[in-house]
C-alpha cells in the first residue's frame, strides 16, 4: 500500500488528507495529522472520499474519453483527443473571426487547481483577447471579495483558524458552520470547551445546528443583515463602545457612516429584523467590549443582491471597535469551495487580473501584458456568471467552454441557463463526471482528472496554500485540466492572428526554446510547477506576494501568504500594524445603505424561500451523490415549512406541494420544521435535476431548486441572490403515486439511476436517490449494500410500458418476482424476494397507484428483515402489516449508521449531566467518535431530553 499526502476537494477549510492506494486504486483516506487546517480531522464527506473513488463508482460515473455530439439531441460518440481539440480550436477561432473575441466565454470552477485557473485566465485574456472568463466562485465568494476591497483595500481575509482559539466572542452570520465547514466547527467546539466564558452569537433566519450552539441567537428576517449591523453600530456609538483613537489613526470615512446609521435606531432595527431590542443591545455589547471578537460569515451574506453591502457593513463593526489585526479578532470570510481563493489569486474572474490586479486599472493591465508577452490585455469588462449565460441565451456569446462545474444545476433561473446552453452554437464541457446535467447540453465532452489524480496547489480560507498530489494515474483517456487548456491554447494560437512578441517571460521559456521559423507559444508549460512559477512571479510586490515559496517548501508543509522572498514564514494574520493596502494606508468605512430583498414576500408569493447546505452532501452531488450512506441523514428532497404554516394550509407531512416562484415551479414533499420562522420555507441547494425532476401540465421540464431562484444580483459583486426567492406553496393534487426501491449491486445502482433520469421527466413529480444499509464506515467496502429509490406522482397512471421499464431497471423480473395488477384502478405491485433457508427477504418493490403501505413494506426492505410472515400482504393494496414493522428512524451518525431512536432510547436510560450523557452515548453507540459531524445534533438531542428527565 502507498500513502500520498494531498488535500480534500470539498469546502474551503482545506483539510489535509492521506490517500491510501494499492495496485493503482484508491483504497482508503484519513485526515493528515500534520496539516494545520484539520490536524487529522475529516467530516463525513472527506472521510468517504475513497468510496467515491472506488472502481464500481468510477466505472459508472467518470467521463473517460472525449465524446463528440455530431447533432443536437443526438448521442455523443467517442473521438480521438487530437480531433477533439482541433475541432474545438476551429470552432472557437471561427467564432472569434466572425463575431469578435467577446463572442466566446469560459465558465470555470473553484474546484479547479490554481494552475488550471491560471492557464484559463491567460487563454481568454492573453490569447483570445476577451475578459469573458468567470467562475462559479462568482456564486459564492465575489461579495466577500468586493466587501474586503471596499473597506480594507485588498481581497485578503485578515484572520486565521488559530484565531478561533483566541476569540472571546464569536459572531457567526449567514453561515451554518456546523454543516458547511464541519471541521472548523469541531475547532470552535473545542475552543468553547477550553474557554467557557467565550460568547457565541449566531445570526441566521433558521435555527440551524450552529444556532443551537449559540449563547445568543438572532433569527433575523431574510435579507436584513445590513440593518442589523447598522443597528449594532448605532448602539455602540450611543453607549460609547467604539474606539475613537483607532478610528482616527487607521480609518477614513467614519463621519459619512455615522450619518447613515443615525437613522437605524434600536426600535427600527428590531421591527425590520424581527428580533427583540434587548437581544440587539446584548449583541452590540458582547461584540464591542469583548477583548477579541472574531466574525465568521459565508453565503448568507454573500449570495444576496446586497452582498457587498452586507460584507462591508460587518467589516465596519470591526473597524469601529478595533476588533482587527489582533489574535482572535477580525472579519473572517469562510470560503465555500476548495480553491475559490486560488482562483481569485490568479485573476480567474471577469473583473480581475493576476495577483489581485484590477482589470479597470491601466497600469495593472500593462503589468500583466508585459508578464505574458502580449501587446495588451483587453479593457472591456467581461461577462460575469449570470451575464454570461444571459448573453448566450440572447445569442451574443456563440461558443461556451464550461470546466469542472455544473451550471445546469447550480446557476439561478434555470430556464435562462438552459436556453443559453441550447442556443450557443458550440458548447464544450470539460468534466470528470459524465453524470452531471450540463453534460447533456455539450457538443464536445473532454474528460478531466479529479481528486486523487491531480497535481498542483489550492488555497484555503485562511490564505494557506497546500499541495494537491496524485495517488493514482489518470484513468482511461482523462487528462489534467491544465494540460487540456495548454493543448487547446497551442492549437488556437495557430488559427488566430499572431500578435507581435514582447520581450517578457510569458512567451518562450527554458521549456520552450525558440526555434528558427517556429512560432513561440503563450503556453510553454510542461508541468503544473512551471505554471505555478509564472504565477509566483506575477505576485512580486503585491499584497499576496509568494515569491519566497516553492513547490519544495510546500511539499514539506502548507504555507500562508504573503510569503515574500527572504521571509522565514507566511503571515498568520494581517493588518497588525494598522496599515492597510490603500492609497493612504487607512481602512475605509463604507457608508452602505440598507436595501430590501430583490423579491420581497407579497400576497401572490407569501413565503420567503431560503436555500442552504445539507450536512453530508456537497454542491450538485456529482461525487457525494454516488454513496447511499451519505443520504442517510437527509434521504430525500423536501421543502421545510413551519408547523403553523402547514396546519393553516390543511397540509400533512409528506403531502406533495407546488413551490412556485416567478421563474418556475417544482413539486416535492412538505416537512415540518420548527427551525424556520412563520412564512418561511427552506429547500437544500443540492437538489438538482439529477435527483429531483418533473414536468408541468404544458410539458415543460422542471428541474431542481434553481428552477425557482432569482438571477437578481449585487450591482457591485455581480453575485446572484441564490439565498432567497419569494414563492407560493400550494397542495399538489396528484392522486396517482409510485414508489420503487431495490437493492442493486454498486455498479448496477448507478447505472439504473442514470437510466431513470429519462423516465423522471415523464412525471409532474419524481425524485430518485440512492440508499444503503449503513454499515460502519470501516466495513463499508465489504459489507455495504446499495439501493435506489424512486418516488413519483402524476394526475393519472402512465402507460404500462413505463411501469415495465421501471420493473426492468429495479430488477423486478424473473421467477423471484411476485406481481399484482389492476389496470382499471391503475394499480400495480411487484416485489422481488430472496430466500435464505427458511427466511424470505425483500430485495425490491414497486408500488404503483396505491402507496399507502409504504411505511411498513419499505422498512422491511431497508432493514433486510424476514418477510415470510407477510405473504400475500406484500401484494395487497392498502394492506396493513399484521405485525408492527418499525422504521429505524432518522439516521444521525453516518459513520456508524446510528439512528435517532437508538440514541433517544439510550439517553432515556442514562443519568447525569448533559456532558455525561453525551459521553455515554458516544461510548456505547460510538456515534460522534469518528468524524464528529453529528456531534451538534447529538448535543441538541441530549439538551432536549435532560429537562424531561428533571421533570420526571
UniProtKB/TrEMBL annotation:
CDD domains: MopB_CT_Nitrate-R-NapA-like, MopB_Nitrate-R-NapA-like. The keyword Manganese does not apply. The keyword Iron applies. InterPro entries: Asp_de-COase-like_dom_sf, BFD-like_2Fe2S-bd_dom, BFD-like_2Fe2S-bd_dom_sf, CT_Nitrate-R-NapA-like, MoPterin_dinucl-bd_dom, Mopterin_OxRdtase, Mopterin_OxRdtase_4Fe-4S_dom, Mopterin_OxRdtase_prok_CS. Its cofactor is Mo-bis(molybdopterin guanine dinucleotide); [4Fe-4S] cluster. Keywords: 4Fe-4S, Iron, Iron-sulfur, Metal-binding, Molybdenum, Nitrate assimilation, Oxidoreductase. Residues 494-522 are annotated as: Disordered. It holds the Pfam family Fer2_BFD. GO terms for biological process: cellular respiration; nitrate assimilation. One of its GO terms (cellular component) is membrane. Residues 1-57 form the 4Fe-4S Mo/W bis-MGD-type domain. GO terms for molecular function: 4 iron, 4 sulfur cluster binding; metal ion binding; molybdopterin cofactor binding; oxidoreductase activity. Belongs to the prokaryotic molybdopterin-containing oxidoreductase family. NasA/NapA/NarB subfamily. This is Nitrate reductase. It comes from Ramlibacter tataouinensis. The lineage of its organism: Bacteria, Pseudomonadati, Pseudomonadota, Betaproteobacteria, Burkholderiales.
